[in-house]
Amino acid sequence: MKAFLTGASGFVGGHVLRVLEDCGREVVCLVRPGSDRRNLEGTSARVVVGDLVEPNSFRAELDGCRELYHCAADYRLYVPRPETMYQANVEGTRRILEAAGQAHVERVVYTSSVGALGLRADGGLADEQTPVALDDMVGHYKRSKFLAERVVEQWAERGVPIVVVNPSTPVGEADLKPTPTGRIILDFLQRRTPAYVETGLNLIDVRDVAVGHVLAAERGRIGQKYILGHENLSLAAIFAALSSLTGLAAPKIKLPHVIPIAFAGLDTARARLFGGEPRVALDAARLARHKMYFSADKAVRELGLPQTPIREALARAVDWFRAHGYVAR
């Protein structure tokens, strides 16, 4: 079976590529010019250089593919030109789904994010049905993914056979950039985390996320959303797990949210004025006020989503960052 994959050079997409090949798919990968292709090394995927917002750059290669996995996204919590994020995440999704409809693709798996879903005000477990509105979205990344989901719904109504997956917080190896999640682990390893705030995340092994994509194509109900998540942990608990794995001390100072928000606001303003990236993005500090706890029961029940212990994924992430020169010896 032939599958078309966007975002294969990224963290999640690179793992999806390997699972697809393990399942016997012939994979065609769309990558942008100049993309870091290290996550494609050792695979037999055919690479197409193009751009999501320019369908003529990939339309011919999409013809004949029975599946489309749209994993590509601009995932940053600080973006100096927000319009580029909306162009990639919203307009890019619109263009590739239009092309998928014209190519009569039999199944589309769209990679969204739990960031596009609602949260429980009491900090309890949210799910696919938790109420949400655009005004609930903090920052351009979450807003762009929320709007992209509305585009997905429009194309689903037009008959494109789409299943949506909403990964929570993937951790594991091959996080090249790294993602904001990988940055938490890397900052800990580099001893750049002197304190923490009261917040929480739902973590999942990135390999399980990749398997979840293929399970969604094979078992998911068209038009449905599936949270790909596993364990809900406070930030303090994440640092405690990393401390246990590495022998490095976990931060013991808990800050009120107002302090990192103030620092992030000043640092983000500096980055906008003088260039570069903030040490702590304002959107990241604002997001930390909310515990992003989710239930993946639907994906476990309907898809058979695997639930690898998070400690194993954290250990692989630590080993990978150390082995690839991200941490000074």
Note down, in words, how this protein is organized.
The chain has 11 helices and 13 strands. The chain is 41% helix and 17% strand. Helix 1 crosses helix 6 (206-219). The protein has a domain at 2-174 and 205-230 and 293-307: 3-Layer(aba) Sandwich (Rossmann fold), CATH 3.40.50. With 329 residues, the protein is an alpha/beta fold. It has helices at residues 11-22, 59-62, 82-102, 139-157, 180-189, 206-219, 235-246, 258-274, 282-287, 297-303, 310-323; strands spanning 2-6, 26-31, 46-49, 67-70, 107-111, 162-167, 169-171, 195-197, 200-205, 225-228, 231-234, 253-255, 291-292. Strand 5, helix 4 (139-157) and strand 6 (162-167) form a beta-alpha-beta unit.
Task: Spell out the blueprint of helices and strands.
Blueprint: E1 2-6, H1 11-22, E2 26-31, E3 46-49, H2 59-62, E4 67-70, H3 82-102, E5 107-111, H4 139-157, E6 162-167, E7 169-171, H5 180-189, E8 195-197, E9 200-205, H6 206-219, E10 225-228, E11 231-234, H7 235-246, E12 253-255, H8 258-274, H9 282-287, E13 291-292, H10 297-303, H11 310-323
Parallel strand pairs: 1-2, 1-4, 2-3, 4-5, 5-6, 6-10, 7-9, 8-12, 9-13
Antiparallel strand pairs: 9-11
Helix pairs in contact: 1-6, 3-4, 5-11, 7-11
Question: Short summary of the structure?
Answer:
This protein has helices at residues 11-22, 59-62, 82-102, 139-157, 180-189, 206-219, 235-246, 258-274, 282-287, 297-303, 310-323; strands at 2-6, 26-31, 46-49, 67-70, 107-111, 162-167, 169-171, 195-197, 200-205, 225-228, 231-234, 253-255, 291-292.
